Amino acid sequence: MSAAGLVLETVDGSHVTGWIDLSADHHQPWGIVHGGVYASAIETAASVGASSAADQLGMIAVGVNNNTNFLRSMSEGRVTVVGRAIQQGRTQQLWEVEIIDDRQRLVATGQVRLQNVTPRPPA
Known about the structure:
The chain is α+β, with helices and mostly antiparallel strands. It has one helix at about 35-55, and strands at about 5-10, 15-20, 60-70, 75-90, 90-100, 105-115.
């Protein structure tokens, strides 16, 4: 998370918000933000929120599918990351996460399906 620069502001079992200050540190060779930054932020927001919900069951949530769509290129600036649970069941969850620029335009959007699993006992 620190390499991507994602800062989480609010986290609960159904909603996650945060932000990233995009810069040259996030660029691919052609001078725009690498899509992996967005995919990572989307999966992280969904995983943290889903794990918060799964914690109430004594479980954690792990991603099993991440589908990210890149809609607008950027070189720099702050983007807001907003995630929400679409469906939360006993064994799986589905989250939607949007990344929005400072003009309220959608930069990337994704859905992450997560599996609720029992955590490994401490060694």
